[in-house]
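Q: Is it fine to ask for two folds in a single conversation?
A: Yes, each is treated on its own. Send the first.
Q: Here.
A: Result:
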Amino acid sequence: MNIEDFETFIEVANAGGLSPAARRLGVAKSIVSRQLSRLESDLGVQLLARTTRGAALTEAGMAFREHATRILAELDAARDTMIPGGELRGRFRIAAPVSFGPTHFAPVLAAMARRYPLLRIHTSYSDRTVDLVSEGYDCAIRVGHLQSSSLLARRVGSIHGKLVASPDYVKEYGAPETPADLLDHQSLMQGSESWRFLDGEKTITVHPQGHFKADNPTALAAAAVAGLGLGYLSDSVITEHIASGALVPVMLRYPPKPSGIYVVRPPGQNSIRKIRVLTDMLIAQFSA
C-alpha cells in the first residue's frame, strides 16, 4: 500500500468529497480518484459512498479512517525519532482563526514553508472551534481565554484590547464606570463568553448581555461603530476606528485582561516536532 493513498483518503474524508480534497491537495480530481480506487482495491472494501453531493464514509471507511490517521501519526513520530534534527516533511494540518489568522499567523506559516520545502502545510481558517481529533488536524492556533479541555496548550503571545463604544452610544446611554455597570448596557458578543477586566492585580469576570452577536470581531467592531452597544475588542481591530473618532475607549479604570495566543494539540506524539517548530516561530514573532 502507498502512504500517499492513505493521506489522500484522510483528506477526502475530512473534506467530504473528491473535488474539495483535490483543491486542498493542489492536484487534479482524477489523481485523487485514482489513488482512492487503488486503496479500496488493495483493502478489498469500499471506503466511501459517492453521491452527487460529495462522498460519505462507509462503515468500513469510518473504521479505517481511525487506523489510517494513527498510522500516519506513528510514521511521523518514527521519522522524528530516527532523525530528530532532520528535514521536516509530510503533511501538517493546522486550524487557525479568520480573525488574526491571515494577518498575524499566515506570514509565520509561509516562513515555515520556505524553511522546510518538503513540508506540506494545509491551513484552514475559520472562527469556529474545530475538533482537532475527529477532523484530522495536527494542531490549532487559538486566541482568547482557553476553556478547560484535554488538549495540550502552549501560550505563544498576547492580545491586548479595549472596551469601546461609539460617541452616539455614549451620548444616548452613557458609559459604564465599573464592570458591574455592564449589566445595564447592550454588549456585542461572539457567543455567551465572559469578559475579564483588571482591577490592579485582581481579575473581575463579567457575563455581559446583548442582542447582537457575531462570530467575527471585525463584524462586532462594525456593530459598535453603528452604535449597537459596547465592544470588547482587540487593538488590532479597533485602532483605525479610534483614530478616526468612530469609537472611543470607555471604562479606562478597568482595562480588559490581555488574552492569549495559544498553540493547542491533542495528547500524543502526532507531528510533535512540527508543532514545536511552529510554536518556536510564533513565540519569536510575537516577542519581537
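Q: Second one now.
A: Result:
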Amino acid sequence: MRTRFRPDRQLTARMALTVFLLGLVYVVFVAVLISLLKSWVLVVLIAGGLLLAQYWFSDRIALAAMRARIVTPEEEARLHGIIDRLCATADMPKPRVALADTDLPNAFATGRSSERAVVCVTTGILRRLETEELEGVLAHELSHIAHRDVAVMTVASFLGVLAGMLTRFMFYSQMFGGRRRDGDQTYVLVMLVLLVSAVVYALSFLLIRALSRYRELAADRAGATLTGRPSALASALTKVTGEMARIPTRDLRTAQAFNAFFFTPAVGARPSLSTLLSTHPSLQQRLDQLAEVSAELGEAARGS
C-alpha cells in the first residue's frame, strides 16, 4: 500500500528480523519436540489452524474483546471527519472506524490488511482530547496500518502463545497418556519439554517487546510528520498517560492484554515493568523524539 507516510526502512528491517528469528526459534522448538515425542503432529496442526484463524479474523477478535462496534459518520461525525482528513492527506484508503464504550482513554489499529483495517478509539479518549490532540493519536494509528506492522504483531504475538499451549498439551498427554513409560523417564521427558518451552517463550517475549517499542516510536514519528504538529501528539501522550492514574486498577488489568496494540499502555502512574519487558517506550523517550521532530519541522517558527 503506497501512502504519503514515509517508508520506515528501519521498522521494516526490524519486523523482518523479528519474524525470521521467531521462525528460527520455533523450527528448533518443533525439531526438539520431534526428537522427544511422537504426538507432536496433531498439536502443530491445531496450533497452525489457530494461528491462521487469529490472523484471518484478528479485526473481529479485537473488536469483540474490547466490546467495540463499527460506527458510521452519522453516529460519530467528529471522529470520521478527522480520519477522512488524515486519509486524504496520507493518500491512503480509509479504514473502518470503531468505538469502544469504556472510560479507559486509548486507541488501537487492527486488521490483517488495509482492506480489513480498523481504527478503534474509546469514549474515554474522545471525551478527554481536543481535536488537534485526537488528530495526532489517529495519525499515529493510521501509520501502523500504512507500515503493515499490525499484521506482523498479530502473528508474532500468537507465536509467543504457541509454546505455552504446546507445553500444556505435552504435559497432560505425558501425565495421562504415558503410563506405559517408566515413571522416571516420563518425569525427565516432561521436564525437558517444560524447559525448552520456557526458553522459547522467553526469547519470543523479548523479541516481540523490542519490536513493539520500536514500532510505537516509528508511529509517533510518522504521525507527527503527517500532521505537522508534533506538539499536539505530545500533549495527547502526556494527557492520556496522566489520566491512566485515574482509571480503576481492575479496568486496567482487564485491558492489559491489549497493551502491545494500544496507543499508550494500560498501566498506572508508577508502572513496575522494566524497559526490557515493556510494550512501549517510556513517556519521556516518546516526548524527546517528538521534540526532535518538532525542531526538524520548524513547528515553533510556523506557530509564531
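Q: Anything structural to flag on that second result?
A: Two points. The chain has one domain: 9-303. The chain has a mean pLDDT of 82.
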